[in-house]
Amino acid sequence: MSVTDLAASSTGLPAGTWQLDPTHSSASFAVKHMVVATFRGRFEQFDATLTVGQDSAELVGSVDASSVVVKDENLQAHLGAPDFFDVERYPHITFRSDSIRRDGDELIVDGRLTIKDNNRPVEARGTIAGPAVTLGDVTKLGITLEAVVDRTEFGLNWNAPLPKGGFAVANEVKLTVELELIQS
Amino acid sequence: MNVLGVAGSLRRDSHNRNLLRAAGALFPPGVQFAQYDRLKQVAPFDEDDELDTPLAVTHWRAAIDQADAVLFATPEYNASIPGQLKNAIDWASRPVKQTVLRNKPVAVIGASTGMFGAVWAQAELRKALATAGARVIDRELPVPTVAEAFDDRGALIDHDLALELESILLELLDSAGRRQAA
Predict the structure, then answer these.
(1) Is the ipTM of this complex over 0.85?
(2) Which region, left, alpha or beta, applies to residue B79 given φ > 0 means left and ψ of -120 to 50 means alpha?
């Protein structure tokens, strides 16, 4: 395996269309639970494509909201209900970038995240690695991005007050995607 | 469109049954509205009984399942939901993955003989229904001093209350209609 040079783009990203390897990628969230701890969940079904042209780049992602997975099946059912993601009415969570900036291994992506028809600007920061030629001469790119959003801006308002103050779940949620992208 | 009415009190001359009757007269043509009349038969929830579900529970779940929307009218007992109504919600919410309440459009109204119109019971019932996965209309209709609330024909005397009730019913039907159209 070796890092390889691809056609130059003024974006600093390797030109081409890069599609998701779902097996080796993840989309997850983390939120403060009971004030002190961090609770994590993930989505099993999602897609992402990075398209890099001569002067522009775009990252587009879509998540099947019903594929949310947490350790407790009752909570999982509740997360799919109207109280949370309301997957019957809003089956998809989507993201589309407005701009992508690369500085060495760092990546800053500004875009629009849509959950339950609420479209809000989001800044995601992370890293980029590659491209690298891997097994079978497949060229891959690795991207990790994190963004912090206020879930109540996306219509996910459920909460429960705790007897001695505070709430069961924080409003701030950290979203993380780890993408293994294949050049197509 | 089929709407099921569920009164939270069991007695025959329940004020909340009367409130449901008043609501039933406000639905537009084409809506079939029927009150559930077997709430009292639903046994106490017991996880041990889930493997051999009591017939009354099966009947209750089927009634919810077959309705396009459910309208609850609840009194307030000790600042909360009547026990038998909560018990029935608990049965309907099981099993969690296949509950008949999942995404079911529901609305909650309520009446009391006192000054507060069962407002706390309504709030708690909305919370329980949402937690069970229902699509809950985020509105309330507190009908206070209910003994004097209806005219000779059974309609709400307070014009503003009647308008508010009608508006809640339309929102409930809209929610059910969106679900049918999807």
Answers:
(1) no
(2) left
